[in-house]
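User: Hi! I'm working on a homework problem where we have to compare a predicted structure to a textbook description. Could you give me the structure for the chain below?
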Amino acid sequence: MKFDKFHLSDDLLRNLNNNGFFRTTDIQYKAIPSIMKGEDVLAIAQTGTGKTAAFAIPIINGIHSNKSSKRVLGIKCLIMVPTRELAQQIGEVFNALAKHTKVKSFAVFGGVEQDFQIKKLQDGIDILIATPGRMFDLIRQGFVNLQSVETLVLDEADRMLDLGFIGDVQGVKRELTRRHQTLFFSATINPEIKKLAYSQVHRNAIRIQISPEDPVSKNISHFVMFVEMDDKRFFLAEYIQQNPEGKFIIFVRTRVRAERVAKAMARVEIPTMTIHGEKDQTDREDVMRAFRRGECKILIATDVSARGIDIPDVTHVINYDLPEKSENYVHRIGRTGRGFNKGVAVSFCSQEEKPQLQEIEKLLTKKIDVIKVSKSDYKMIAEPRDLDKSLKELIESEESRMRKAKRRKKK
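Assistant: Happy to help. Predicted structure tokens:
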């Protein structure tokens, strides 16, 4: 379906066309009319299916129409997100789609100086995209007032309503007027989180669920390889070398792991970049900018980059380590196969990670196809290890010979 069927403003339609939005995805087709009617929505759809635009389009159109007919002051829409990267990305989408309209949006998040953010807020904005920590800091300082908010959006709602964020959501709800629209968007949601979500709406929410039988996009071909933990770096290097034109995101468990894998790749002359929570905000922004531009085609990341990040033309996702939470599998591999593109995801599973694989397959309600590893695949690994073993035995033999010689000399 074309977007002009929704009777959007001419400026917004022009922006959609200029940014490559020519026809609706399923989630956009189903969510936009309900949001435009002012209904509360709980939307669950696969990653990469256009969820951000599904709420951005009706929100921008509504605020633009109201500002055209009357003077509207204050923040009209608040979008809460779990990470800085997601806040920045949603901010970019809103800026692109609101260009030439009367709508002003801005993203605030921690890890950077707040002076510039305060200046933008004082200039006046209509849509605030925020991570909870920085937003509450600005509320306490008197720079953010939510009394005029008419629409609350929770993106990555399952995480926002998880134990670490439910208090923040409830705190925001207390700041808002009683009559406001609430929108929840996520790729995955379990029964407990669903119950929490419904507890936050003032009326029956419209539930929109796309492809509930399979949370993984049909654009993604995903597989598992059973590889021992110590062998993963060899298979990673080989897989990258076999796909020289690919653009990769490699997910690992910890920041230490990310740096170790990067060093292992550097030893075989494979250039990579890393992103994780220990990097400061400026470094993270530089890395993401370089990866988006294709200056480096291999990004090693922790789960800080698993959710919601839309990076163009990622062809492959590698789960170097399986995620501890099965839901994160869906979010990780959803970094490829976005929109109408195709993608491939491969997970390395060691013996000790098999319980995590079982949980992932339980979530997916089906087995993941296996890429078999043959003895010949291990030949490249076994040979250098035998050499290392021989060298070690030679050193030990020489040390033993020297110890015996010393004992004979003493006698």
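For your comparison, note the following. The two ends are 95 Å apart (CA to CA). Residues 381-392 have pLDDT under 50 and may be disordered. Good luck with the assignment!
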